[in-house]
């Protein structure tokens, strides 16, 4: 019995302790709840301006009953806590904008990487944009806005077709050079002719750059000095020769000596930005600069929209051809394209081509419209064949765009010299690499040829006319189509018919254009 009693007693004591602990916990919770309610009644429930009870979270002091310093501190804390995720998130527009501003080169290198779709499109657009920005307004002047724009679009369609022909040939031959494609398709002689033609194209572009520099720098000096030039600068011919000499000897020759591009690659990005800036400035001048365009509606109504004549077509043909000379770049772009196939390369060619033609049409249309009621300026555009020669009434943004373009053009000359020296090395020195002395002599000879041509040829339009009627059609149109017809076995019938039609059109326009250019110069 004693043993059993002790067992029952031992069992009952823990139960009693548990009930007592439970009562104590309940009492402590009840007291805590009551204290919180009392705290809430004292500090939280306040009467607002309308006589209503305004309740906030338990334990929080309403903002209106805080001291001013506490209010400011709380506001700053809330702003930081709410904006911090927005500012630091990689997907935030503010974060992206900060990355672009603080390190634009790194941002562009990540987004537009070589070999990607965006990088390839960017390289193609940079290869297209050039002197066509200055001369294509002449196309709208000679043919009217509608026909001129249609010709510019037709030019890019023909160029894109020939570019895709080169892609097919590059895939067939597994080469990244237009000269090697020509050599495989038609033999050693055609390959050498292609190399000489490409040398002429590049030297022609360098010559046009020297002409632009020698004509624009004196006009910039005149505008900055309001026409009051010293007597030594009053002779325009002497000033142009002097500037061409200084640029060729002190800038073009030294920067053309290296065999690698190096930092000069960034000039393509700078040149692209300058072209965009020029297009925006021309469009804004038409709409907002009353000194140049007093009434845009008058200019629109007085403009010529359709002026069809064979003479105008033949005159415009070389400008259009020279504005889309990116065909030699196609094999290298295709070789560097990631996961390359015909569909991805078609995307690069067509997006890049139509991105460039959009800018070309904008500057051509609005450049012509800005002076459609000014016959004197239109005659200057017809003769000089350069939109930068027109009088934009000392517009500050236009002057800035001219200076930027001159700097870009001065830097683009050495870039054109590098592939020329590579072609010369392949033609003359075969499998050998030029020594330093040979490199200096070749660079000096090429610079001298471009300098002499720039002194003799009066305007950039003459250079582009000569190139657009001779070597440019061969390199950009004849050769790609002929190589495609020779190398591609399974040609669709529509591709073959289109190729033959383009050959006929470009060949006819080249022959008739040469005749028209010669007769115009003689007359």
TrEMBL record:
Domain Amino acid transporter transmembrane span(s) in chain numbering: 116-517
Location within or outside the cell: Membrane
Transmembrane helix in keyword set: yes
Xref: Pfam families: Aa_trans (PF01490)
Cited InterPro entries: AA_transpt_TM
Any one cellular-component term (Gene Ontology): membrane
Residue ranges of the region described as Disordered: 1-24
Keyword field contains Nucleotide-binding: no
Protein name: Amino acid transporter transmembrane domain-containing protein
Organism: Euplotes crassus
């Amino acid at each position: 019995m004693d043993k059993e009693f002790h067992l029952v007693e031992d069992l009952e004591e823990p139960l009693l302790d548990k009930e007592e602990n439970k009562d104590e916990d309940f009492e402590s919770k009840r007291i805590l709840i009551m204290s919180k309610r009392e705290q809430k009644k004292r500090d939280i429930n306040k009467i607002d301006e309308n006589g209503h009870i305004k309740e906030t979270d338990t334990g929080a002091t309403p903002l209106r009953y805080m001291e001013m310093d506490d209010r400011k501190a709380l506001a700053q804390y809330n702003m930081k806590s709410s904006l911090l995720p927005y500012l630091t998130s990689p997907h935030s527009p503010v974060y992206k904008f900060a990355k672009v501003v603080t390190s634009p080169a790194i941002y562009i290198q990540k987004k537009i990487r070589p070999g990607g779709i965006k990088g390839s499109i960017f390289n193609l657009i940079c290869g297209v944009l050039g002197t066509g920005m200055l001369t294509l307004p002449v196309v709208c002047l000679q043919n009217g806005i509608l026909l001129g724009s249609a010709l510019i679009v037709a030019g890019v369609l023909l160029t894109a077709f020939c570019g895709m022909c080169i892609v097919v040939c590059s895939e067939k031959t597994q080469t990244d050079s237009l000269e090697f494609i020509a050599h495989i398709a038609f033999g050693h002689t055609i390959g050498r002719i292609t190399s000489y033609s490409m040398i002429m194209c590049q030297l022609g572009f360098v010559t046009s750059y020297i002409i632009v520099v020698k004509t624009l720098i004196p006009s910039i000096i005149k505008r900055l000095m309001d026409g009051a030039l010293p007597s030594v600068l009053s002779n325009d011919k002497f000033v142009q020769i002097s500037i061409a000499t200084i640029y060729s000897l002190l800038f073009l020759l030294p920067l053309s000596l290296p065999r690698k591009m190096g930092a000069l690659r960034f000039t393509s990005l700078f040149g692209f930005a300058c072209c965009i800036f020029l297009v925006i400035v021309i469009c804004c001048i038409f709409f907002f600069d009353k000194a140049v365009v007093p009434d845009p509606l008058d200019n629109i109504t007085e403009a010529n929209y359709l002026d069809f004549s064979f003479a105008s077509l033949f005159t415009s043909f070389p400008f259009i051809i020279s504005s889309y000379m990116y065909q030699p770049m196609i094999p290298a772009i295709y070789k560097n394209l990631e996961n390359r196939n015909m569909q991805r390369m078609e995307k690069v060619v067509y997006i890049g081509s139509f991105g460039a033609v959009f800018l070309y049409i904008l500057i051509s249309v609005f450049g012509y419209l800005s002076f459609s009621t000014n016959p004197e300026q239109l005659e200057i555009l017809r003769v000089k064949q350069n939109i930068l020669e027109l009088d934009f009434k000392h517009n500050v943004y236009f002057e800035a765009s001219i200076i930027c373009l001159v700097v870009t053009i001065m830097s683009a000359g050495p870039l054109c010299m590098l592939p020329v020296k590579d072609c010369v090395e392949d033609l003359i020195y075969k499998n050998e690499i030029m020594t330093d002395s040979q490199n200096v002599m070749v660079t000096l000879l090429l610079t001298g040829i471009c300098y002499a041509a720039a002194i003799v040829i009066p305007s950039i339009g003459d250079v582009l006319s000569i190139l657009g009627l001779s070597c440019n059609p061969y390199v950009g149109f004849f050769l790609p189509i002929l190589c495609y017809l020779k190398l591609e076995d399974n040609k669709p019938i529509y591709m073959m018919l289109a190729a033959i039609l383009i050959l006929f059109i470009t060949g006819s326009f080249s022959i008739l254009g040469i005749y028209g250019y010669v007769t115009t110069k003689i007359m």
